[in-house]
């Protein structure tokens, strides 16, 4: 056995207590541990527990007692939602579905012993492990910025306190001030997310600070729903938003958080708020488990099993699976496929061919909603796009309002699907 097959942090695994019931020959239930309580992990835990009707012991490891969805957090920034409306707890998963919810950090995985080490000093044994840890940021992705600077230049790409901080900074901007965003390179969580955020910031500033300016430094020559956003910015926020792509230096960016300076292709600009969204990678536990290839964890889309360990399934933002975007809808869809595969493997229940879907809604202005989406199927090589759709420029106000209202209904539905 090599070190690649094991990861330990902290105390040696041999000294760590094990959270498990006493083994009784012929009576032990198969055990599934799920790490990460977001759209992928919470859904997987619920569907495995519910679908197995108690035949599988399910433990969900999530450090936060209250989970804030990244999707719809931009609407909080724009004043269309309260923070409490995107906050969710795990009580129903525990009380109605029998999921053992453990609020702790997973800090190591021993793939040979099939145990997860927790920061609190315990170890959880598993027969199957589900990793849905979301994203972390690539060190050094934006010159001058790292996570120690997130209170001065927040990323707000993990919702909650960062969202509150960014909202407070926006509302405290001086009259005629400058909001700057450093947009991320592909691939990243929620492809339309940065540009919906720009729209929501512009909405707030138009009402509170109409002479303010927005600068977007973007390393990409194009982005998701680009024509729709640019049309909307012209309609709602004409002259307020300056998008700077790579042709004009958007891929040559540095920041100075102490001086609140953004440098684009060597030209310094003093800013009042700077939202830095760095390049992303799979949540660190995937790297610690030794199942990443580059920044992401490759999987077999037919079961969402890791390409490096058949006993591990990886969901959502953290996985490299093919054509699906990294979104909450995608994670929820993938979790159902993984749950079915796990139940089939551990209880011999029926397995059906994997099918997936995704839609990403974005709000540009009041009742001005747009969307993009697709359906997918699993092949031996990847999750492959079958067909897709996208809103069109020039749509009437009634259709755009209906699209926004559809997104509100979807949010209620998916969060109920995740948390019960």
From TrEMBL:
What's a single GO MF annotation on this record?
oxidoreductase activity
Ordered alphabetically, the record's keywords are: FAD, Flavoprotein
Extent of the signal sequence: none
- All copies of domain Flavocytochrome c sulphide dehydrogenase flavin-binding, residue ranges: 354-419
Instruction: Give the FAD/NAD(P)-binding domain ranges.
Output: 31-136
Q: What InterPro entries does its record include?
A: FAD/NAD-bd_sf, FAD/NAD-binding_dom, FAD/NAD-linked_Rdtase_dimer_sf, FCSD_central, FlavoCytC_S_DH_flav-bd, FlavoCytC_S_DH_flav-bd_sf, SQRD, TAT_signal
Query: Which protein is depicted?
Result: NAD(P)/FAD-dependent oxidoreductase
The species is Phaeobacter gallaeciensis
């Amino acid at each position: 056995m090599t070190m690649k097959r094991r990861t330990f942090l902290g105390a040696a695994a041999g000294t760590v207590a094990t959270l498990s019931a006493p083994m009784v020959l012929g009576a032990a239930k198969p055990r599934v541990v799920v790490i990460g309580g977001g759209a992928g992990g919470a859904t997987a835990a619920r569907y495995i527990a519910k679908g197995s009707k108690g035949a599988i012991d399910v433990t969900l490891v999530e450090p936060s007692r209250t989970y804030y969805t990244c999707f719809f957090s931009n609407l909080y920034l724009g004043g269309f939602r309260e923070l409490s409306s995107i906050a969710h707890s795990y009580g129903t998963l525990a009380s109605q579905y029998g999921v053992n919810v453990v609020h702790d950090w997973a800090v190591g995985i021993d793939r040979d012993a099939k145990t997860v080490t927790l920061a609190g000093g315990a170890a959880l044994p598993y027969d199957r492990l589900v990793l849905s840890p979301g994203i972390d940021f690539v060190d050094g992705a934006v010159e001058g910025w790292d996570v120690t600077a997130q209170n001065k230049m927040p990323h707000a790409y993990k919702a909650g306190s960062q969202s509150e901080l960014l909202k407070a900074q926006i509302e405290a901007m001086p009259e005629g001030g400058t909001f700057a965003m450093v947009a991320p390179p592909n691939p990243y969580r929620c492809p339309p997310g940065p540009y919906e955020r720009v729209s929501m910031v512009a909405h707030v500033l138009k009402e509170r600070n109409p002479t303010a300016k927005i600068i977007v430094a973007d390393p990409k020559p194009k982005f998701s729903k680009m024509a729709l956003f640019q049309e909307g910015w012209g309609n709602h926020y004409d002259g307020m938003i300056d998008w700077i792509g790579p042709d004009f230096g958007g891929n040559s960016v540095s920041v100075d958080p102490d001086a609140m300076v953004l440098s684009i292709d060597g030209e310094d600009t003093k800013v009042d708020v700077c939202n830095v969204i760095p390049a992303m990678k799979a949540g660190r536990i995937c790297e610690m488990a030794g199942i990443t290839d580059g920044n992401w964890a490759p999987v077999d889309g037919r079961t969402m099993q890791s390409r490096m360990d058949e006993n591990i399934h990886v969901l959502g933002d953290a996985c490299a699976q093919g054509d699906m975007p990294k979104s909450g809808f995608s994670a929820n869809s993938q979790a159902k496929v993984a749950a079915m595969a796990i139940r089939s493997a551990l209880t011999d229940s029926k397995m059906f061919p994997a099918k997936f879907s995704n839609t990403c809604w974005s709000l540009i202005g009041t009742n001005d909603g747009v969307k993009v989406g697709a359906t997918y199927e699993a092949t031996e090589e990847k999750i492959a796009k079958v067909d897709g759709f996208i809103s069109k420029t020039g749509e009437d106000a009634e259709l755009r309002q209906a699209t926004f209202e559809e997104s509100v209904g979807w949010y209620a539905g998916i969060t109920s699907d995740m948390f019960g």
